From TrEMBL:
Keyword terms of this UniProt record: DNA-binding, Transcription, Transcription regulation
The family this protein is said to belong to: Belongs to the LysR transcriptional regulatory family.
SUPFAM superfamilies named among the record's database cross-references: Winged helix' DNA-binding domain
Keyword Secreted: no
Protein name: LysR family transcriptional regulator
Cited InterPro entries: LysR_HTH_N, WH-like_DNA-bd_sf, WH_DNA-bd_sf
Organism, as annotated: Mixta tenebrionis
A Pfam family: HTH_1
Length: 266
């Protein structure tokens, strides 16, 4: 009733930065979205996006419009869907990673009963919490704190085979982090063969590790399963974003647990 279609289309386009994914989210096809965008640009007298195939690059005018429009859009969304306030949404590009599952499992008692954990490459206005290994574009009314997740290198011994001959098991995105490449260099200097093995399924990763197929960086408390601990530490810098418009006691309880579980430094 209060949120116009043009307003919603602009917000979704700005957040998705991709015509196809925005169309899917809006349950529309690309042509009507591009027509609506063109009409909005003509009405404003400003170009809002630079289009490269399906990819959208916001202009400075789009940034300014979004900064002014977002608080009103978010407030109206909450007005339309008051039940959404009862749902607690945590999003992350690493939602399926084992280290994220371990972290959230540790804080599970502090999570509201109605909690949704979803994969998302970018932050969205309906997120309560957004957690990422990589810094993300900060949306209005979100604030950030950073923390360090310390992981030890564990392995399960299988006969005479030593750790230097075992590959390092890892999940996608970790190999793009300077801290991961740095610790691999340290291991190589200590005689490791330098081999890695990417497994993008948390269940298969766990099984491969338990069968002694490789080395794995894990939270220190998981070494109680009889694993051996090697003197190599991986530090993951986590960025945790909090939606200040939705912030309440649920957020504070969860954040307190996160800060206790990690080395909070900002």
């Amino acid at each position: 009733m209060f949120i116009t279609r043009a307003m919603r289309v602009f917000i979704i386009l700005y957040e998705e930065k991709n015509l196809k994914s925005a169309a899917d989210k809006l349950c529309l096809t690309v042509p009507p979205i591009t027509r609506m965008l063109k009409l909005t640009e003509e009405w404003l007298g400003e170009q809002l996006f630079i289009l490269e195939r399906n990819r959208l690059i916001p202009t400075e005018a789009a940034d300014n419009v979004y900064q002014q429009l977002y608080p009103h859009y978010s407030a109206l969304t909450q007005f339309h869907h008051p039940s959404a306030e009862r749902d607690f949404r945590i999003s992350s590009p690493q939602a399926g990673h084992s280290f994220m599952a371990d972290l959230l499992a540790k804080c599970q008692p502090s999570l509201p009963e109605k909690t949704t954990i979803r994969y998302a490459g970018n932050m969205h206005t309906d997120d309560d919490i957004f957690i990422s290994l990589q810094p993300a574009v900060l949306l209005p009314n979100f604030e950030i704190f950073r923390a360090d997740q310390m992981l030890e290198l564990h392995y399960i011994s299988s006969g005479e085979e030593g750790w230097k001959d075992k590959p390092v098991l890892f999940e996608h995105n970790l190999d793009q982090l300077p801290s991961f490449r740095h610790v691999l260099d340290e291991m190589y200097q200590c005689g490791h063969n330098g081999q890695t093995r990417r497994i993008d399924n948390a269940v298969w990763l766990k099984e491969a590790y338990e069968h002694g197929e490789g080395l794995l960086f894990r939270r220190p408390e998981k070494a109680t399963d009889g694993s051996r601990v090697l003197p190599f530490i991986l530090h993951l810098s986590l960025s945790v974003y909090i939606n200040t418009l939705k912030r309440d006691l649920r957020h504070e309880t969860f954040l307190t647990c996160i800060k206790k579980s990690l080395n909070y430094f900002q």
